[in-house]
Specification:
This protein is mainly beta and about 220 residues long. About 10% of the residues lie in helices and about 30% in strands. The chain has 4 helices and 11 strands. Strands 1, 2, 3, 4, 5, 8, 9 and 10 form an 8-stranded mixed β-sheet that branches. A hairpin with a 4-residue loop joins β6 and β7. The N and C termini lie far apart (about 35 Å). The mean pLDDT is about 95.
Amino acid sequence: MDYYADFLAAATVKTEALKKSWNVAPTDSVYAAAEFKGERQLGTFRWGLLPFWAKDRKMAARNINARAETVAEKPAFRDSFARKRCLIPADGFYEWEPKERGKLPHFIHSIDGKPLALAGLWSSWRDPETAERLKTCTIITGRPNSVVSPIHDRMPVALLHDAWDTWLDPDFHDVDVLLDLLKPIPGRLVTAYPVSTLVNKVQNNVPECIAPLETPAADAD
């Protein structure tokens, strides 16, 4: 927890430590940094954005990702894009390469071993039945870089350090500038390798999920 707070230069931590995960699933809790009253804070958000107007929790699983091309206009995301942007630290992410049979997962991470700062949005939602207040988030995806393009046609947007202040500033509203930040991270900064199809099931949340395959199978199960 403190490691991610230091990485994102968060002044305050507003959460307890989460259990380490190698296979984060939709609606799981994740760390994210956002600006509150001029201070960068690290908090906990459920993955799967619920806009304030959502009638129930059902749409959360459909909103784990927001497309960079439509994020400023799509009703589920446009309010958060305007003023509730966040950074989600990730040690890496998975993408699946199509094969003749099934898909082969790959683990993508930074060359230097540090986390990636994924561009995200957050929202505060009140359950109309229980009055419980939930903080939820989504990860923005865009076109792939040179490392990921042979594997998949999209990838999460990872922001470099010089874009963080602008992205997190809730008073910054220049849509063109914000959208221009949502470019693929340079391929020279990340690497990828195939991993076991263990990761295909969320019940498999073990270190083996990110272990490299010594001899990648021609086809994935």
